[in-house]
Amino acid sequence: DIQMTQSPSTLSASVGDRVTITCRASQSISSWLAWYQQKPGKAPKLLIYDASSLESGVPSRFSGSGSGTEFTLTISSLQPDDFATYYCQQYNSYQLTFGGGTKVEIK
Amino acid sequence: EVQLVQSGAEVKKPGESLKISCKGSGYSFTSYWIGWVRQMPGKGLEWMGIIYPGDSDTRYSPSFQGQVTISADKSISTAYLQWSSLKASDTAMYYCARLGRDGYNLGPFDYWGQGTLVTVSS
Lengths: 107, 122
Hints:
The complex is a heterodimer of chains A (107) and B (122). Chain A has 107 residues and is mainly β. Chain A has strands spanning 4-7, 10-13, 19-25, 33-38, 45-49, 53-54, 62-67, 70-75, 85-90, 97-98, 102-106. Chain B is mainly β and 122 residues long. Chain B has strands at residues 3-6, 10-12, 18-25, 34-39, 45-52, 57-60, 69-73, 78-83, 92-99, 109-112, 116-120.
């Protein structure tokens, strides 16, 4: 199975900061990677798919990059609504896997 | 509008059986994989398995194979997640979600249900 490792697990940042979250796959997944945002008590929300495509309705301050085994999610200017937990997920094979999550906290 | 509506919260005792549901609407239910995702209290997301309602092809995570059963009734556009004998460790929120590519193609989970909280306690 493909393992997905996210870092950091927790991130403290201020409004306006540029934030980067990394996700590494244990083997190549081409660009078959998605990023989700989850707030407490809510279902996850799709932000980015195919590593770098922005889901409709998602603010342009979110961006994704990478291919193969290393991927990043960047928030260009952190807004109050962005404090949440972020997950990556690969869909390269029928064995889908999520990363462990990155909690973005207020500094 | 695509919607996935899950059944309500459940409180069960260890050893009991349970079947929770996820009803899809607003799209061709038989043409998209539906998946189940577990989230234990305070923990991350875990993929459990997916089913293609068009032909009931089902794939399980090794962690959940044999522990749960995923099924679908395409006549009523509903997917199910079932346990034959619950354990306290099954206490979690369970989400269904649609893989956002039609046909047999994999993709991201683009639409999610609201979640079903399952509590197993004696």
